[in-house]
Amino acid sequence: MSYIPPFPPRPPEVYPALRLLRTARQNLLAIWPEPTFSKEVFGHTLLRRQILVCNSPETVRQVFVDDAENFERKSPQQRHALRPLIGDGLFISDGASWRERRRAVAPLTHVSRLPELAPAMTEAATERLSGWRVRAGQEIDVLAEMGEMTADVICRTIFGSEPGHAAAATVVRAFSEYQALIGQMDLLSLLGLPDFLPRLQGRRIRDCAARIHAVVSRLMDEILHGARRGEASLIRELAGNDAGGRALSVEAVRNEALVLFMAGHETTANTLAWAWFLLSQDAETEARLHAEVDQLEGRPATYADLPRLRFTRAVIEETLRLFPPVPIQAREARQGRVVAGRTVAAGAIVMLVPWLLHRHKLWWDQPDTFLPDRFMPGGSGVPNRYAYVPFSIGPRICTGAAFGLTETILCLATLAQGFQLRLRPGWPVMPTCRLTLRPGEKLPMRLEPRQPVARAVVAV
Ligand code: HEM
Q: Whose CA is closest to atom 40 on ligand 1?
């Protein structure tokens, strides 16, 4: 029996403006009417701003790849939302500044570096597994647990050593709070109010950002000037080199460290949380995953094991299809263009919405069903490379895609050897989105220890 995970009700047609804005503030996934899951392009004018959604491989390719320079600028909402946290970090910069930072940051987590970065993933997962053994039978908040583990991973790889659980937990909590607060700024930015006007919650947002800044600045200080001066770390490399011959300023390094922290921990945490949830609801898929990971015979999964974790990878790929951590990617048009016969004015917002594209009725078979087999050899696969874009596409594609995939596979394979997770009975799970897509505010699940599948019956 295939499993269809929950999704918000789809209205038959687009809500009137006020209801649309109210719904969007609660959950950006709840605004899309049923017909948008089969349209190839559509648009609206909302509060005088033109919005166009590229919902076909052709339009995604035109806007995000072929004409990327014209659409490289992030939307004003995204820039407003993230500026207090990451300043001029590459995630929200554009033009020459983005190019300079991208050149400096992208090589840090390039696929060629994974053999040296992956041990930190294995270590963080192994420690988490030991912690779970002590708490066997208890209920945990999987979302927070995965957030702390992936914050651990990013700290170890980017900052060169283990930051301590307290630091990781502080950052995870502050990020959660930050997300909840910035949801409330969107409306003002959409109305086109200028930056200098004080925002509701502006002070709480700044306080939250300050807590995150304090942790990152302390880590950087230790690395650049303190006791850990001699240790190798990616941040140290960044401080000494911008890949163009000029060193980045301390502030630029701090902002990029924050970008890596922000972009690199919550996305992977959400993916893992969703994967645990999906596995708990689909006994057959869970059993196949167990059969595969048990071939490691109780050993933590390492980089060298990746080729034999093919089904684990398919589970992660299918999780990213159904619950893309960045479900809406928006850009501002620099100059006017025509996209699929529609005139797009300068300043219009053009969107790629993986939430729609990944569940699109024209490109996917059983789009709402959890079917990891589609990603297995011989499966139906990705119908079109522009229709599966969990890491975006084009020049602004995620620099940590290979890192994130490797991390989620190794962590899931290590932890799933020791435990299966069971949802608190009656707990309502619903995908919600402010900045990233999560299974609600928390995900309470019980840690159930498990015995490995006997080798003789392994058949993946
Ligand atoms: C499952 C894990 C991940 C997913 C699904 C993901 C997804 C994405 C997406 C969709 C974007 C583009 C956002 C937009 O255009 O609005 C992006 C950008 C970015 N990601 Fe990731 N990401 C993941 C993990 C990571 C990791 C582990 C790192 C670093 C260690 C990272 C670093 C970045 C950076 C630096 C950018 C900005 C790139 C630019 O603007 O040029 N990501 N990511």
A: 91
Q: What is the 8-class DSSP label of residue 369? A: S
Q: Is residue 3 part of a domain?
A: no
Is 342 among the domain residues?
yes
pLDDT mean over 289-304: 97
Residue having the nearest C-alpha atom to atom 18 of ligand 1? 398
340 domain residue, yes or no: yes
Cβ-in-10-Å burial (0-12, 13-18, 19+) of 155 comes to buried
Q: What is the DSSP code string of 128-186?
A: HHHHHHHTTTSEEEHHHHHHHHHHHHHHHHHHSS---HHHHHHHHHHHHHHHHHHGGGH
Domain count of the fold of the chain: 1
243 vs 51: which has the higher pLDDT: 51
Q: What is the Å distance from ligand 1's center to 252 Cα?
A: 18
Ligand 1 surroundings by CB, under 6 angstroms: 90-91, 102, 105, 109, 259-260, 263-264, 267-268, 271, 325-326, 329, 390-392, 396, 398-400, 403-404
Cα 131 to ligand 1 centroid, rounded to whole Å:
29
What is the pTM assigned to this prediction? 0.93
Q: Three-class SS of residue 370?
A: strand
Q: CATH number, domain at 190?
A: 1.10.630.10
Evaluate whether residue 45 is within a structural domain. Answer: yes
Q: Which residues pair with 422 in a beta bridge?
A: 446
Expressed as residue numbers, the domain containing 138 is 17-457
Look at residue 164 in the predicted model and tell me its pLDDT: 59
Q: Is 341 exposed, middle or buried (0-12, 13-18, 19+ CB in 10 A)?
A: exposed
Supply 92's token pair.
């929200």
Nearest CA to ligand 1 atom 27: 264
Whether the CB-CB separation of 40 and 356 falls below 8 Å is answered with no
